[in-house]
Structure formats: C-alpha cells, structure tokens
Design brief:
6 helices, globular, alpha/beta, 7-stranded mixed sheet, 16% helix, 6-stranded mixed sheet, Metallo-beta-lactamase, Chain A, 257 residues
Length: 257
Amino acid sequence: MDIDFSWIGGATFVIETEGLRIASDPALAPKGSVTDFFWFKSVRLNNPVYDDKTFKNIDIWLLTHTHLDHLDEMGLTEISAESIKIGTKDVARYFAKKNGQDIEILKWNESRTFTAGHLTIEVTAVPALHGINPLSAFFAGKVNGYLLKINNGDTEFTTYVTGDTIYKKHIFRHIRFPKIDLMVPNMGAAKKGSWIMNLTLDAGMLARFIARINPGVVIPVHFETFSHYKEPIKKTAELNNPRIKIMKPGEKMSFKL
C-alpha cells in the first residue's frame, strides 16, 4: 500500500492512498491573522500552503474540535457537502450554525465504518486531553483524537491522529492501541511557560508516546504555525529518532507498507 502525506500547515494535512483522500482540521487563514481565544490572542506566523486541487474530492474529513487554529471560516469553504465529516458534538453545532452540513458525531471509543471502492475505512474517536492544567483542559472543551484503519483486502494501514492532547497515563486506560503504522502528533507545546501550561505535546511527551505505542512512522504537525505554539521543532529533531519525519508546510511525503 502506497501512502502520500501532505502537510498544509498547523493541524491541516491530507492522507492519500489507492484513490482515497482523507483530510484533517482545515485552518487556512493567512499569515498575520490574529485569532482570539478569549484567554489569549495568537498570530498566524506563516501561510498555509495549498492550491485549488488540495481539498478536491476529499472522501473523509477528520475534525478534532472547533478552535480557530483547527477550523476557521476559510477552511470551512473547502469542505464539500459530499464529503463525510466526522467530529464532536461541538463540531456538529458549529456546522449547523454555519452551513447546515451533516456531521457524523463520534464520542470517545465510538467507531464508524465506511467503504470507498475496494477500501474499507474504520474511524474510531479516542481521547485527547487538551491541557496539563485541569482547568485549562476543562475550558478547552471536548477534543477527539482518531484511530484510522484503512484496509484494501490484503493490507491494513493504521494511523493515530492525536488531536490536541498531552501525554498522560490516563489516556492508555481508555485507548487500546493496535499496531500503529503512522502517528500524527500535534506538537508545539502550546502555551508552555504560561499559567495555562502545555495544551499540546512537547518533545519529551512525544518521546514517551513513541516508547509506549511504538509507531512505524511519526510525522509531527501543529508546530511553528501560530504564536502560541511555543516549542520549536528543533526540540523534536533533537530526539534523533529515525522514525520521526519532519516536514515543511506544502511538502508531500510518500512511503510504502
């Protein structure tokens, strides 16, 4: 099975295999845009890199939550009514208000199975804990991570999309991890060093995750895109783990199972 992974910037990416196209969290505001998170404001530091073909014919959108660094007005315009859209109850309310499109609501540990041609796709929502500080995590709201299994009859490809989470042992009491071929961790240690504390993974947390679930390939996203993403990706590079593949926005990486 041949896999293509394209990183657009932030938490936005596209996975392609055997005609199937799956995308995540379209936040597409331009460089310099200011996002107000109530407790703080954040500036987009670089442009998303995409063209008019990037989001065409997306079969499934994985929507983790409604924070504006994950889903914004420009991103909303790229989501076709024909695509399957998976998200939380908050995502469903957002879409009902904005454009009336239907959302497949998944609670933690719920799954849906879809078919696309010869492929079977199973999507399971898994816990994402959006903050070390319990108060921050509470106000951040419900966030989904996703386990994505794609089966072509001969090979099964499994991806773990962490969503905005931190590393806590609590996660492993609620997720039964299968063999993970690709891990897509949301990095950046958002708001690290403030009273809010880490809202997303830092390099040390990622190292513990890798040791625990042993993924085949790790492609970090969600770093150096917004000013509240505090940890530079060089900290992740310093882990010197050959499984970690660091990309730039607009790049595509291809690999084979």
